[in-house]
Amino acid sequence: MCGIVGYVGEKQALQVVVDGLRRLEYRGYDSAGVAVVSEGELDTRKKAGKLANLESLLGSDPLPQSTIGIGHTRWATHGGPTDLNAHPHVSEDGKVAVIHNGIIENFAELRAELMAAGVHLSSETDTEVVAHLLAATLPAVDGDLAEAMRTVCRRLSGAFTLVAVDADQPDVVVGARRNSPLVVGRGEGENFLASDVAAFIAHTRFAIELGQDQVVELRRESVTVTDFDGGPADVTEFEVTWDASAAEKGGYDTFMAKEIAEQPKAVSDTMLGRIGVDGQLKLDEMRLAENDLREIDKVVVVACGTAYHAGMVAKYALEHWVRIPCEVELASEFRYRDPVVGPGTLIIAISQSGETMDTIMALRYAREQGSKVLAICNTQGSTIPRESDAVLYTHAGPEVAVASTKAFLTQLVACYLVALYVAQVRGNKYGDEIAMIVRELQAMPQKVDLVLDTSEEMKELAEELKDARSVLFIGRHVGFPVALEGALKLKELAYMHAEGFAAGELKHGPIALLEDGLPVICIVPSPAGRSVLHEKIVSNIQEVRARGARTIVIAEEGDESVVPYADHLVRIPACPTLLQPLVATVPLQVFAAAMAAAKGHDVDQPRNLAKSVTVE
Ligand code: AGP
Questions:
Q1: In ligand 1, which atom is closest to the CA atom of 353?
Q2: pLDDT digits over 142-180, tens only?
């Protein structure tokens, strides 16, 4: 998620803005930039890399003094992390500068419209179109930047926070918000705009959270908020009680807690711009030739850790929807087992960081065998997408906590989108069948939001079980990778022995582990009752309970068949079989984080672990 700061007041704007951006560095970014308005001129400086690179540029090529300015730290989504793609973006006449957080879904058609009108666009970003549209609109609204912003926002679809300044209006900063956060900081003779309060609480603790589809006009002495049509908007002012560190975590105790809570939006953002109004997939961005997809005879997923578990879910979806074999390989094992891959194999390399050396070496090996590689990655411009033939980025935003949560759910979404797209291209599914599954997928962000309501009971359960010697996880079908992921979370956060099993495997040995009171977390597949899978997992639960296990059952709302065998029943929203990992995983994430906290561990930075394992 990008960092945004705007300022108008009596102080030197550049210092306020850069300090604010530094407060937002935790959000993760790959370029930074600022713009100020001074004596009728707009000046910008922007640089790829960290803030230090921008400050070095400002030292060698300083900006003029100014009391109005905006600044941005960019987490790249459209277009790599380069100087050119860094924000602010400026209109052709050099008068309007814009910074942006989010995804403008319809930027391609707006870009085409501008190019047809003779506008020269210099970057690969979706944001730049807004700068040109604002400049083109200003003359029609008597130069009123707020009105121009309202006019332009009415044409945009997607999720966006926008902040703009205009050289011809040196006393106003204008912002707009749809889906991505934007808060106002109200000061004495000065006002602030930011992605979150961390950027300005050193100056003021009085804030206004902007609502959906609102535009704010900031002057030294006034803050005016309207809806996109110019009508009055009701806003509430609040006083920030957090300290700076808590503000970075959005008021949550840990980054992991914040990132778990961000999952509904991350899941939704990863679908943005990729599904047409007719329910068909639009994945041209992958630049995978349709004929290549028609000619593949096998898919091999290579990944590590949590990303590997996402790949296991992808296998079920690909084989069910596309009817071609899909193998899932631990990247660290793949190239040493002399795998059978070649030009007919599509390799899918899944990685949050894009820098996992095991996965890099696996994809290099596969390319040497002539296979095409599609990366599913959360980090623009990282090594894995750069070395792949194609990439589908997840839009989880920066994941600060070492234990992966929102990246995992967005990897699942990306895998579903790819599998449906391949089925659509190869004709395995009719358009209406694809559209039906897509509609179910589009309903998932709300279900992920709902399942967050289990957080308190999972925290209580963790407190009850914190002295357990071990915890087992069992699941069937897509519940098996969820069991593995739940066990991994508990291992890496609570430093406990935890193990996930395919429930059908218990009787082949692991059942010997069972003893009185041993917690066994059982993931029951959806839909309730209407599958042989469901009957079998219920009998597995009976088996473990009969041997003294303490059964914690994760089952969908309304599934009464499991009640007699559950010592503790955690309800999740009903959803289609293949999509259940999106909701079943969340309680396990919360459980592991709570267990770590109960044991006094560092939840965000567990011992011995790195966020990106860049060695083999
Ligand atoms: C997940 O909680 C772990 N931090 C780890 O297993 C991680 O998923 C794995 O190292 C792969 O990382 P990547 O997605 O950045 O490639």
A1: 15
A2: 999 999 999 999 999 988 999 999 999 999 999 999 977
Exposure pattern of 492-509 as b/e (b: 16+ CB <10 Å)?
bbbebebbbbbbeebeee
Ligand 1 residue neighbourhood (C-beta within 6 Å): 304-307, 351-353, 356, 359, 402-404, 492, 612-613
Which ligand 1 atom is at minimum distance from the Cα of 610? 4
pLDDT single digits (tens) 99-123: 999 889 899 999 999 999 999 999 8
Indicate if 2 belongs to the active site.
Answer: yes
Give the strand pairing for 237-239 and 206-209.
antiparallel
Q: Best of 334, 353, 378 to mutate for ligand 1, by most ligand atoms within 8 A of CB?
A: 353
Global pTM?
0.80
529 vs 537: CA distance, rounded Å: 11
Per annotation, catalytic residue among 298, 466, 599, 611: 611
Q: At what angle do helices 305-322 and 479-494 cross, to 10 degrees?
A: 170
Peptide bond into 88 cis (omega under 30): yes
Task: Give yes or no for a contact between 596 and 603, defined as CB atoms under 8 angstroms apart.
Answer: yes
| Ligand 1 centroid to residue 304 C-alpha, Å | 6
User: Which pLDDT band holds residue 544 (cuts at 50, 70, 90)?
Assistant: very high
Q: Model confidence over 375-393: pLDDT tens digits?
A: 999 987 788 998 999 999 9
Residue 251 DSSP code = T
Residue boundaries of the structural domains of the chain: 3-247, 255-442, 452-598
- What is the position in ligand 1's atom list of the atom closest to the CA of 492? 2
| 415 annotated active-site | no
- In angstroms, rounded to a whole number, what is the distance separating the alpha carbons of residues 158 and 104? 5
CATH classification for the domain delimited by 452-598, as one of 3.40.50.2300, 3.40.50.10490, 3.40.1050.10, 3.20.20.70 = 3.40.50.10490
Q: Whose CA is nearest to atom 9 of ligand 1?
A: 305
Rounded to the nearest whole angstrom, what is the distance from the C-alpha of residue 498 to the centroid of ligand 1? Answer: 17
Q: Are 114 and 91 in contact (CB under 8 A)?
A: no
Structurally, at CATH architecture level, domain 255-442 sits in 3-Layer(aba) Sandwich (3.40)
The b/e string for 242-268 (b: 16+ C-beta within 10 A; e otherwise) is: beeebbbbbeeebbbbbbbbbbbbbbb
Answer whether the bond into residue 527 is a cis peptide, omega within 30°.
Answer: yes
How would DSSP label each residue in 334-378? HTTS-----TTEEEEEEESSS--HHHHHHHHHHHHTT-EEEEEES
Atom number of ligand 1 nearest to Cα 613: 10
For residue 391, how far is its CA from the centre of ligand 1 (angstroms)?
A: 18
**What pLDDT, on a 0 to 100 scale, did the predictor assign at position 529?**
64
Q: Report how far ligand 1's centroid is from the alpha carbon of 100 (Å).
A: 29
The catalytically annotated residue of 2, 304, 326, 415 is 2
